[in-house]
Amino acid sequence: MQKILDRTQESLAQAFATLAQSAKRQQRLYLVTIGSLMLIVLIFALVLIVVAGLKQLDYRRALASQNATDISLLIHQEESFLRRAALTLDYYYGPSGGRSAPDDVQQAILKTGVALGKTDGADSNFDIVVGEITRNAWGSQLGERLGRLYEAAQSTLVTQQAFEIQQRATLIGLNEDYAAILPSLTHPLAGQTSALDQAAMPAPQPAIASLLRETLERRIEAQTGRRVPRKGERIWLEPYRDPLLNRLVISVVGAYYDGDTPTVLISTSFPLDALALRLAPPDNEGVNLLMTVDRRIAVSSMPLDASVTNLVQRAVAATPSQIFHYGREGVIFHEPLALGFGLLVGYVPWRALAVALGWQLAVIGCLTALILMTIALMARYFGLRLLRNSFAETSRALQSEMLNHVLVSATPVGLCIVRQSDYSVLTTNALAIELLGIEADSNRLPPHIVGEFLAQAPVQPSAMSFARVAAFVVPARPARMPAQSVQQSPTEQRNEAQLSPSPDQDGGAPSQFLQFIYAPARYAGENVLFCAILDVTAQTVLEQQLRHAQQTSEALMRARTNFFAAMSHEIRTPLNALLGNLELFARTPGLEAHSQRLATLDLAADALRRVVNDILDFSKIDAGEMLLVREPFLLIDVFENIALSYAPMHGERSIRFYALLSPTLDQTLIGDRMRISQIVNNLLSNAFKFTSTGKITLRAEVTDDSPDRAMLTIRVSDSGAGMNEETLARLFKPFAQGELGASHGAGGTGLGLAICARLCELMGGHIVAESVPSVGSAFRISIPLAKPPVDSRAPAKARKQRGIVLVLSMEREAGEIMEHWLHHAGWAGHLVTLPDAAQAWLRLNRADAVVVSGEYGLDVIAALRALQPVGVVWITRAGPLHPEARGEGVLEVTEFSRTAVQSAIELAHETKSTTAVPTAARSESGPAGIHPTLRGLPVLVAEDNPLIQNLIAEQLVELGCVPTIAHDGEHALKLFEETPFELVLTDIHMPEMDGYQLLAALRKLQATVRVLAFSAVAEHEEAHNWRERGFSGYVAKPASLRELQAALLEAAPQSVATAEPMSSAAAGSALSTDDKARYTAMLKQHLQKDLPRLLAIVEEEDVQALAGWAHSASGAFVVVQEPRFVEQCRRLQRLCNDEGRWTTEMDEISISLHEALSDHYGLDEQSAH
């Protein structure tokens, strides 16, 4: 059957070959003829368009030539006027001149320095202005000197009107403050027709003379290097803003010389806008412009961008006059002006030329389209109709027949038509017979395939059962099943075979699988299925392998996750124990000779810890185990704490570190501040590592991204070694540190920046880097943060207008940030960068305070205070967190704390220059006065936590007491035995001797001693009955100043019933940002020593020691306002109190707390790349 079909195809092809060839030849010849005719029409239309364009360009050039002639005449006219004005001055300032000015003019000059001059027979006046110093200098010669100026101005105005000059002219004294303005400022000029234009003119003032002279002298000096034109020289000044007209003008300036001494400047000015209107081409299509000899554009009828300006300049330089320059953007031509003044240039863009030729192009286009359409219609009607129809019918018949043969015979897919009633094969191709294994004397499908068809439509087979395109996969040969599987359905057998396509029992290749894709159809009056058959054995085996590989991969991922979770504790615990014991060993007396080796060991161990932490953190991120915290936090606190921690890191290197933090950071947003701090710390650590000299800058700001989301943008830049493009391309890939770090002598795993990039992705942001070798690098991070709910947002504070603060900063960008913070706090700031500018400003203005950056010393501050005794705030990188006096009226403070700077400004504004300001020992939140009972009261404090020791000591000093600190109960008892105290504050849970034992020992020594319990207990029952336990009272840890004062007054001997009033700032228990930053830094330093002790306790499984550690740590976290860690410590303490032995839960909570503290305070994450 296949051979018959092939022969039929061959005969059909031969039968139609001759007809097709002849028809195609006639068609090609006819189409070539018609195409040639259309091409001729198009070429003729293009020739007409070119001719019309050339005529339009000739017309434009003729207009440009006329404009060039007019402008050249105007230039001659202006220069002639200046020569005549110089001759007029020479006449009236010579021996023949000497009449006095009219009396009314003299009286007006003496009274106001301004007079209105009049001319005989002219309809305009002129203004004369004379400065006060000049009037006094003239003295008795005022009338004669004024008369010469008056007559010279009269004659010059008449000359100006005779020359029909529409611009305003000026006669300005060079050595004395006087000027004549022709015509008067009250007289409107041509083009100044509206009352609004006239009202914009300034009133004549004596100061106008010096203003005009200084403006012209500056412009002449900038253009020629001289302040006055030479004798007989006229200078055309480039565009500048005229102080009289307040418009951009072009001026021509000359000078009158009395002998060899220049005496008077003579000038006239052309407003650029009026000149541009004069140059405008017809219908404003295109641009006309004046170009100077050195090809700079002086006036343009329309503004041009930089690219077009460069194009015009290059074209003028390369093209002679009278010649058109055709470029990609348009046509350019130019005409020379008189006296070498420059060129008049015309620029006509192609689009403008097309607009100018609009109706002509429309006519040509319409005619061309009409002719082409006529040719096409005629060709279609008379030529192609019969030929195309006959050829199309023949082609369709041939193509249809050939397509049928190709689809049946040549397709690589098995095809067959199956009768739906009995699943017999009606027709098929050779590939389908091969795939199905149908015998020559049979036309039925194999039984197991028929069973699969029945499984697809289990009810009575019909057309409705197969009313869709469907597919299934079935084995090519029926599978040999065990006896118990005989009752399985075909689908179950097929699924079982698919899940395990194992080799045959004889070790041969895997079973063959076929995919049937079928659809219902009608053929020869019967319901049939059109089937396509594919061999999908390889695909089925591959799917099985992929499923197996996926299961193996998931098992490996789970194993790796479990491994790193276990190793996080197993590696960090001995490593931190090693670091802690190494630090303790270094403090052992008698090892001074080995200090260098111990320092080397400490550096190596710390580097090993950073490497381990980088690898573990990266593994967490890579395994998807890194979880982000969403909590509200104040952005500015995070960045100021970071800046304060990096302020002293430059060491002996000449590095300047700037933290340019926008006031937009002063808001609460929701996100993971620990991870944001980790990213910034990584980038700053790298910047300090790779920068040996220059500048490192941290910038941060917040912009609104949507009503519910803000975008945090951070930029860290340095002037370090930089990176090439190859290194930059792989910068954020893991372990990319190697070559770059080795080449610069820096260590690390190369995971720091990879961790930063992954953390940014986790938070929905991104990080990009830019770098230039030997110049520096810059990293830009964008992180979206959620805004708190509207009902929980703090209401906007009304901004109180305070006063004016002068800011002197050598770094302009840092000064601008300071200005923004001042405006944010209600101050009006004025920024200068040089001491001379600051002194000049102070001579003319009154400042409420002055802020001076650390680049300037106290000598500069002294010079400023000599001009105005105003309070000065000196902000330095190494300055204190609280204002400290550095001389009379001078406060020093760190530049990295906005609260400290603002507090210093307030103090400077309040104190002015009267007295010195309290030093850093005084807290901003201290009480308004010291109670007499507490003044000088000695207080013994027993506290084992260094952070709380510092806090309670500062509070007691603030209240007027004299504190003595003991680090535990035994130490306190020893101090009390040496010097008895009237009042004792003691912690309850302390090593060696707790608070209860200390209370009993003190009562034995002195029964009347007052002892206050000082504890941070969480249980109400424990804190309720302190007096029943023998204490004189209870002070919560940490306590506000008001609470501490009340407790001390109640327990102190001879106490008064009421306490003195305290300021509202002292009453609150919340720490200021600066205090929190300071205590956080102290806590971080304490944890570096205390966290290894926690690991040692876990190793020893000491329940009592763990309870004591948790109690001590919870008090410290209460001080720095970290409720999350406070709750974890108290939970651990309750667990230790409830359980008598070590439990797995204690171990888990301790290790989790250790890792959380290490991550939060960056103790284990000093990463490097």
Automatic annotation (TrEMBL):
Q: Where are the transmembrane segments?
A: 29-54, 331-350, 356-379
Q: Name one GO cellular component term.
A: plasma membrane
Response regulatory domain spans which residues?
938-1052
Which domain of life does the protein's organism represent? Bacteria
| Top EC category | transferase
**GO terms for MF:** histidine phosphotransfer kinase activity; phosphorelay sensor kinase activity
Chain intervals with Polar residues compositional bias? 484-503
Q: Which UniProt keywords apply?
A: Kinase, Membrane, Phosphoprotein, Signal, Transferase, Transmembrane, Transmembrane helix, Two-component regulatory system, Virulence
According to the UniProt record, list the residues that bear 4-aspartylphosphate: 987
- Record-linked InterPro entries: CheY-like_superfamily, HATPase_C_sf, HATPase_dom, His_kinase_dom, HisK_dim/P_dom, HisK_dim/P_sf, HPT_dom_sf, Sig_transdc_His_kin-like_C
Question: Could you tell me what reaction this enzyme catalyses?
Answer: ATP + protein L-histidine = ADP + protein N-phospho-L-histidine
Q: Which PROSITE patterns match?
A: HIS_KIN, RESPONSE_REGULATORY
For this protein, the Enzyme Commission number is: 2.7.13.3
According to the record, the residues making up region (Disordered) are 482-508
Which stretches make up the Histidine kinase domain? 566-787
Q: What does this protein do?
A: Member of the two-component regulatory system BvgS/BvgA. Phosphorylates BvgA via a four-step phosphorelay in response to environmental signals.
Q: What is this protein called?
A: Virulence sensor protein BvgS
